[in-house]
Amino acid sequence: MSAYHCRPVGRPLDAVVTPPGSKSMTNRALIAAALADGHSLLTGVLIADDTRLMFDALRALGIPITVDETGCVAEVTGCRGRLPVDEADLFCGNAGTVMRFCTALTATAQGRFRIDGIERMRQRPIGGLVTALRALGTGIEYLETDGYPPIVVHAEGLRGGRLTLASPESSQMISALLLAAPLANGDVMIEVTGDVPSVPYLKLTTAVMDQFGVTVVEQYDASGAKFIIEAPQRYRAQTLAIEPDASSATYFLAAPAIAGGRVTVEGLGTQSLQGDVGFVDVLEQMGCRIERCPQRLTVIGPQPGQRLHGVNVDLSAMPDTVPTLAVVALFADSPTVIRNVANLRVKECDRLAALRCELSKLGAVVEELPDGLRIVPPSQPCAAQIDTYNDHRLAMSFALAGLRCESLVIHDPQCCEKTFPDFFQRFEAMSAL
Fold it and tell me: How far apart are the first and last CA of the chain?
């Protein structure tokens, strides 16, 4: 399918949705299970391009993994903290978690490992992680451009030590170090100064590590964050249920804000480990009503005749929700400002530039800020042909505009294979189209 033709809904929504498994939680659990001391069973895993790349990378590193794609179950036989191979060539596509996590993972081993991805991945930074791993005794070679893949890891294991990361460009770099640190020969202390990106994702990392029996002492304050990992520690095999993906849930939770009615997402609620469940707080500020339960969230849209309100928000804690909010902002009665998300420039595409361009096609006046966007909504979004830049989050977000816009066409919808292969089918089912 080269293009998806949206169809507006003619009545308020009334739906219950369960999104697929969390990509972030799946890939973190896979690393922990791969390093564990036995047989782990992961249920509810995401089956999509990004997790298949992780399956393949771990298999290339000698980790036995059996996946039931229909049942969304992965069985992993851990290597007891010692990778079975001393050489591998890993392809990470455009999956940042796979690239960064596997770079740190291979550094714990003994051997030579080449790690690469598609052309866009070669434009996404990895220098901060490489510098940190070098400080822990790993030799890493850039094959083309310093600071970017492809790389070769010349691994001799990790020694302990103290690391300082100044305003790292991605929380994935910190998470990669956290996941690998328990295998070091001595304790590891990681100090992050300046801006700490996506703190909820760091807390998700340490929560998954805790579930696999590894303890991290963590502290967050206005000056940054500190992590202490006693080493060596051993991951213990687990049976773990993966939560539905909170980032993917935002497209459904935002739908009644635009189309009216109510949508409930099952499996995510006040007990979720994922920070993106906080997106409902932003929808509440805009005028929606929220019902919160431990394992369920419901968004009720504005009543007929009422409009959403623009907001001014710092989304540094949940940057993956920026495209969702940017599209919702088209239907507000005043401008929306999104701040502190400069790291979106090094995602699957430069999301700030892409959103400015595509929102403008719908009639919005968009100012691209150094760290965000200012969106002045149109009186009524107009028909448009939306380009998606091979970015799954753009494709899924602009489907929301199609709930109210006539003749909206989304190009390259298959880019959703990255994290949500059947997104458009599920979105149609929610909309009863």
Answer: 18
Alpha helices in 61-194 (DSSP H): 96-107, 127-135, 171-180
Q: Which of the following is catalytic: 49, 116, 276, 320?
A: 320
Other C-beta atoms closer than 10 Å to the C-beta of 432 total 11
Q: Which domain holds residue 266?
A: 3-20+244-431
Hey, how many other C-beta atoms are within 10 angstroms of the C-beta on 145? 11
Q: In terms of domains, do 351 and 278 share one?
A: yes
Alpha-carbon distances of 10 from 176, 190, 306, rounded to whole Å:
46, 53, 17
Domains of the chain: total: 2
Cβ atoms of 275 and 243 closer than 8 Å: no
Cβ atoms within 10 Å of 271's Cβ, excluding its own: 10
pLDDT tier, 213 (very low <50, low <70, confident <90, very high otherwise) = very high
Residue 231 domain flag: no
50 has catalytic annotation: no
Q: What is the pLDDT of residues 68-88, one digit of tens each?
A: 999 999 999 999 999 999 999
Give the C-alpha separation, 39 to 27, whole Å.
17
Looking at the domain assignment, is residue 339 inside a domain?
yes
CATH code for the domain of 50: 3.65.10.10
CA distances from 334 to 307, 324, 359, 365, 378 (A): 10, 17, 15, 12, 9
